[in-house]
Every structure is written in structure tokens, then in C-alpha cells.
Specification:
By secondary structure, the chain is α/β, with parallel strands linked by helices. The chain is 44% helix and 15% strand. It has 2 domains: 158 residues, Rossmann fold (3-Layer(aba) Sandwich), CATH 3.40.50.1860; 112 residues, Rossmann fold. It contains 11 helices and 10 strands. α2 crosses α3, α4 runs parallel beside α6 and α8 packs across α9. It is globular, with a radius of gyration of 19 Å. Bound molecules: D-glutamic acid.
């Protein structure tokens, strides 16, 4: 985007762009639909390149910039990076490439978790890339220093793939989750942060497994609603909120399978948006 969005005529009626490596961002989209029912939403699932969590920062950044460019070409007035991994790896690059675009990212809820953890031991479930990022390390150190909370980090390798396959309650998904949650509970965690937007879709299973592992209450933290509230604030400040009464429409794009995204929308959110396949953005030769 080259112009100032605030000066664009009709900018308020333009859609909001939301993207994730796959279907995880739908857990954020559902909050945005609740908070902003009059807004049109364009959702991009970069499923041909999922999971992002096993990729290098440079690869994630290249894909995130390509998806952002596509959404801007489609006329969005603001962007929600509905992916913790893409936020940690690419939000700086997105903001510097598109300084006029309001961009909202998502990060693991370390701060709210620290504020409400009686044991002061918090488990963080996220992708490898998110947990290895300098951004998360800094956040963790700052919050630990201020609150005395200890964070136990757990990379959930393979979990995004299970959720992309729609296996929200399968034996294999339960096995993985038990393997990841069990050490955190053993170390005394009473709060689990869902540091990946895919994970809210297995929250019932996470709560069930935590309940089998301990009799102590275990709180689960998801930042999807907070991101949606931040979006409302940023749109309001930039005079970009759609004020007219209009039933917000959702349109979706995927670099992967059209039927997989159609099925995910229907089964996870009971929505039936048009889904288009966009296979040619970015530089596919550079990343596979
Ligand atoms: N939903 C992404 C996140 O929030 C998933 C990452 C992945 O593709 O590995 O981190």
C-alpha cells in the first residue's frame, strides 16, 4: 500500500485481512466476527506452506510478506497476523514494508498468565519457531523479572499438522498432547498458555488431559479475544471502523486445498464462505 489509508475515500467499507499458516487463524476470526459483525473479512490460509513453526525466520518472513501483498492488492484496510509464529518472525518486516497499514499481531499471553498464576509456574505451548525467537525470549525475561514467574516452554511439534488434518480428538492428537502437557504439570504449572492460534481448537482435549494429570485446577490462556479488541481499538483510532449496518461477509483464500479450507470453515465455525485457491504468490522456488 502506498497511500495513507486514512485519506482513502471509502476506506471504512474496505475489508480486513487476516492470515495464518493454515486454519489456526480461524480461532481469531471467530472473535473478530463477534466484536465486528459489520466488517467484511478476507481470510488467507497459507496451507501449502504450513506448518510455519518448523521453518526459518527468513522463510516465514518471505511468505508473510507475499501473503500481505496479496491481501493489500485485494483492498484490505488493516491486517491481522493471526499467527504467533508469523508475528514473531515477520511483523517487523511487514510494518516496515507497509508503514501506512494498521497491522495487529498475536503473541503468546505470557503477561495475563503471569498475572493470574498462583503457583508462579506457567507452561507455554507454542511452535518451535515462536519459542526460539528473540522476541519471545525478551518478553519472557521482562515478565519473569517483574513478576517472579517461571515459564516452562514446550514446543508442540506435529500438533499443527494434526489440527490441519481435522484430528481434534484422535488418539494420535491425545498422545501428542499428553506428551507435551505432562512435563509441564509435573514441573508445577497451574496455567497453560496457548501460544499458537491452532491450539484453541484442541482446548477441550487439553483441559481434559490436564484434568487427568492433576487434581489442581489448571487455567488455559488464549489471546484471540484480546487481539480482536486491539483491532477494534486500532480501527477506531484510525477512523477505519465500518459504521454502517451491514452483515459482514467472509471470503477466503488458500495456497493449499480448497476443499480442506471449506471443510474447516464449516466444521469449526459453521461458516460457508467462498474459497479461492491462490497458488502463485511469493517465490515458491525459494521455499518448499
Ligand atoms: N497458527 C500458527 C501460530 O499461531 C501456527 C504455526 C505453524 O504453522 O506452525 O503459531
Amino acid at each position: 500500500m502506498t497511500g495513507n489509508t486514512q485519506e482513502m475515500p471509502m476506506a471504512q467499507v474496505a475489508p480486513i485481512g487476516i492470515f495464518d499458516s493454515g486454519i489456526g487463524g480461524l480461532s481469531v476470526l471467530q472473535h473478530i466476527r463477534q466484536h465486528l459483525p459489520h466488517e467484511d473479512l478476507l481470510y488467507f490460509a497459507d496451507s501449502a506452506y504450513a506448518p510455519y513453526g518448523d521453518k526459518s525466520e527468513a522463510e516465514i518472513s518471505t511468505r508473510s510478506l507475499a501473503v500481505t501483498e496479496f491481501l493489500l492488492q485485494s483492498g484490505v484496510k488493516a491486517l491481522v497476523v493471526a499467527c504467533n509464529t508469523a508475528t514473531t518472525a515477520a511483523i517487523k518486516a511487514i510494518r516496515s514494508a507497509y508503514p501506512d497499514l494498521p497491522v495487529i499481531g498475536i503473541e503468546p499471553g505470557l503477561k495475563p498468565a503471569a498475572a493470574q498464576s498462583p503457583s508462579k509456574i506457567v507452561g507455554v505451548l507454542a511452535t518451535k519457531a515462536t519459542l526460539l525467537s528473540a522476541r519471545l525470549l525478551t518478553l519472557q525475561q521482562q515478565i519473569s523479572a517483574a513478576s517472579g514467574v517461571r515459564f516452562e516452554l514446550q514446543a508442540c511439534v506435529g500438533l499443527v499438522d494434526q489440527i490441519e488434518k481435522g484430528e481434534l480428538r484422535s488418539a494420535q492428537t491425545a498422545l501428542l498432547l499428553r506428551r507435551y502437557i505432562s512435563p509441564l504439570i509435573k514441573q508445577g504449572a497451574d496455567t497453560l498458555v496457548l501460544g499458537c492460534t491452532h491450539y484453541p481448537f484442541v482446548r477441550p482435549l487439553i483441559e481434559e488431559i490436564a484434568g487427568e494429570l492433576t487434581t489442581r485446577p489448571v487455567a488455559v490462556i488464549d489471546t484471540g479475544a484480546a487481539v480482536s479488541r486491539q483491532l477494534v481499538k486500532i480501527l477506531t483510532e484510525n477512523n477505519l471502523l465500518r459504521t454502517s449496518v451491514h452483515a459482514g461477509q467472509v471470503s477466503a483464500f488458500t495456497s493449499g486445498s480448497q476443499s480442506a479450507l471449506t471443510t474447516a470453515f464449516a466444521s469449526l465455525l459453521q461458516l460457508h464462505p467462498p474459497v479461492s485457491v491462490v497458488a502463485t504468490i511469493g517465490q515458491p522456488a525459494g521455499i518448499s
